[in-house]
Amino acid sequence: MYSIHTSRAGDLESLSALDIISKSKESLGFKQRQQKPKGAQKKEPVRNREKVKIGNLQNNIYMAEKVLKIGIVGYGHLGRFLVERILNEGGEVGLQLAFVWNRNTDKLKDSLPKELILHDLSDFTKRATDVIVEVCHPLIVKEFGVRFLSHANFLVGSPSALSDPQLEQDLRAAAKQHAKTLYVPSGALWGGQDIQKMNDSGTLQALSIRMSKHPSCFRLTRGLLSHWTEGEGRRVLYNGSVAELCPIAPNNVNTMAAAAIAASKLGFHGVTGEIVSDTALADYHLVEVEVTGPDGFSVKTVRQNPAKLGAVTGNATYNSFWSSLLEVQSARVTEGECISAESNGLLQKEHK
Ligand SMILES: NC(=O)c1ccc[n+]([C@@H]2O[C@H](COP(=O)([O-])OP(=O)(O)OC[C@H]3O[C@@H](n4cnc5c(N)ncnc54)[C@H](O)[C@@H]3O)[C@@H](O)[C@H]2O)c1
């Protein structure tokens, strides 16, 4: 687990989340429960109802000061998972739903209290919200991202949207102007912190990522995969820059987008992406990362990501998003300091 934070807009630094936790439990706003000496009198229960347990770190329990209000934008696989988890466990971890929006409101009616349903997304400003979580489509990031940041912190679930340099610049500027934070989760990227370190030290020479999935898992905007048959095997659909690939496969290459952000000196144009359709991959997605440095240095990783047939999101990513929300909750109690992490990837934070 690790995190990346910004000390000032545009500059990224990486930190081990464990380092942060061990260095600054108190400064993070957590209050450690004192060990009771044997025979000591029973303490008064905590009366401040706003304080909630947010985690059990190395067997010590820490308390968050306030509840974080979350707006969920999108009610597909990820959105539904996050909503259910906040409804079931939010009270214990300091998270509360501010609103849920989906383009088809009918999907929400049976599973949510009506006061949580937002019918018109433009009405998000009428709800007190700390963090808006986009889990639907990059187009929503483009249309609403800047407005979201004028009102709340913003976790971009579809970072492929940031392959548009103008949009990335606009989001950074909005975060700065409104003193809000833009969070970018890494999804299925493995080794993002190491990529980031090499990037920062100027030793990252090349980065390429191949994502292979069953054809039913691809959502492509061009006819790269208009016809396929079960059993046809492996087909390379695209190989080239991640900048060009993101608009072609906006829902499938968020991991590559996160890598391009970590490798900021190469950027979306300098990082190579390949997508492969493979009918043998009915049970999992494959993510292969190849990093190249000086004097023959190279690292290759292969991540096997169990996934349901037809799903754009691997199973592990659900918990990863949940971990991100918990880390955002931790970050919130830290004025001026940034901490954010995922159990299996980076969560990057842009400007506070
Ligand atoms: N950051 C990451 O690592 C990561 C990992 C997995 C998925 N994602 C992204 O998160 C998003 C949600 O993933 P999911 O698994 O829940 O997908 P999903 O397909 O199950 O759900 C997407 C939801 O968004 C809605 N939607 C689609 N296009 C829309 C549009 N143009 N405007 C408004 N709503 C729209 C759909 O109706 C659906 O309800 C996707 O963009 C996906 O690419 C990111």
Automatic annotation (TrEMBL):
GO terms for biological process: NAD+ biosynthetic process. Residues 29-49 are annotated as: Disordered. Residues 74-185 form the Aspartate/homoserine dehydrogenase NAD-binding domain. GO terms for molecular function: aspartate dehydrogenase [NAD(P)+] activity; NADP binding. Belongs to the L-aspartate dehydrogenase family. This is Aspartate dehydrogenase domain-containing protein. Residues 233-317 form the Aspartate dehydrogenase domain. It comes from the Eukaryota.
